[in-house]
Design brief:
two-stranded antiparallel ribbon, 282 residues, five-stranded mixed β-sheet, Alpha-Beta Plaits, DNA/RNA_pol_sf
Length: 282
């Protein structure tokens, strides 16, 4: 969902003197792949892809069948009339075609967050949508556009998974009343304020502890001193541990002191795993 754009967007908008906050509203489309309105999808694909390809896709989905297996008892086959295939190579692309007009409607209103002339009022990929706006009324206007589109094209948003966060230089500001249709969007607990270093540090420390726990959990598989080549241990660390730490890290601003501390903890963890003294230089 282009998460790498979020941090620059926060810096750019909050850095302006007349903006002291940025709202981030996260919307989760409920089982979007399973419930996608197929007739609407193939209507949107007219004049977008080659007609012969569109007809092939239409036929392919028209004959899609499934059955239910429960306690070794198999049901009769039935035709699946909605949704795109879970795990299908084309499914994300088809869904993006389906919501492309929603993105256009939101950006055409020229409201919400921007980086210079680049409109970032909505960032979307498949069933994940993020609304960004430094102005409260703009955020609600964009939500109204999304609500109208979702009603017209039968997209259902999960109110329990949708939430908003407000980022600010100041630690204290009011609670906002954002709505998607008749549903009030809840404020997410644990707001990461740009000026709240204690919260950010606790968040980062918890992520680093999860990395360390994951590394130790690999010990029974032989990922420990004298059981594997150092290069293999480092590779496993990058694949299974470092990825945990990096997840969602692009929306957190880390000062240089904390960055050096995390780098030191990571180095000590790896050195311990390959039987090196923690004071050994790289």
């Amino acid at each position: 969902m282009c998460k790498h754009l979020i941090a620059p967007c926060l810096k750019h908008n909050i850095g302006k003197k007349h903006y002291v906050k940025v709202h981030i509203i996260i919307l989760d489309a409920s089982k979007a792949f399973d419930k996608l309105w197929r007739q609407g999808l193939f209507f949107k694909l007219i004049n977008v892809i080659d007609e012969s390809i569109r007809r092939i896709l239409f036929k392919y989905y028209s004959i899609s069948k499934a059955y239910i297996l429960l306690n070794n008892i198999k049901s009769e086959e039935f035709i699946i009339s909605q949704g795109v295939k879970q795990g299908g190579i084309l499914s994300p692309f088809l869904f993006n075609f389906y919501v492309n007009d929603l993105i256009k409607d939101c950006t055409d209103c020229d409201l919400g967050a921007k980086i210079y002339e680049l409109n970032l009022s909505i960032i979307a990929y498949c069933d994940d949508n993020i609304v960004l706006s430094p102005i409260t009324s703009d955020a609600q206007f964009i939500l109204d556009i999304i609500n109208c589109y979702s009603r017209e094209w039968m997209i259902e948003f999960n109110s329990t998974k949708s939430a908003y966060m407000s980022f600010s230089k100041d630690k204290f500001f009011q609670k906002y009343n954002f709505k998607l249709g008749e549903v009030t969007i809840t404020k997410k607990e644990g707001i990461i304020y740009l000026g709240d270093h204690n919260f950010v540090n606790n968040y980062l420390n918890e992520k680093m502890r999860n990395v360390e726990k994951t590394m130790f959990s690999l010990y029974p598989l032989g990922c420990k001193p004298k059981h594997m080549k150092p290069s293999t241990i480092v590779y496993l660390y990058k694949q299974f541990c470092q990825s945990i730490f990096r997840y969602h890290l692009d929306i957190v601003l880390i000062n240089m002191t904390k960055l050096k501390e995390l780098d030191t903890r990571q180095n000590i963890l790896i050195k311990r795993s390959i039987v090196l003294n923690k004071f050994t230089r790289r």
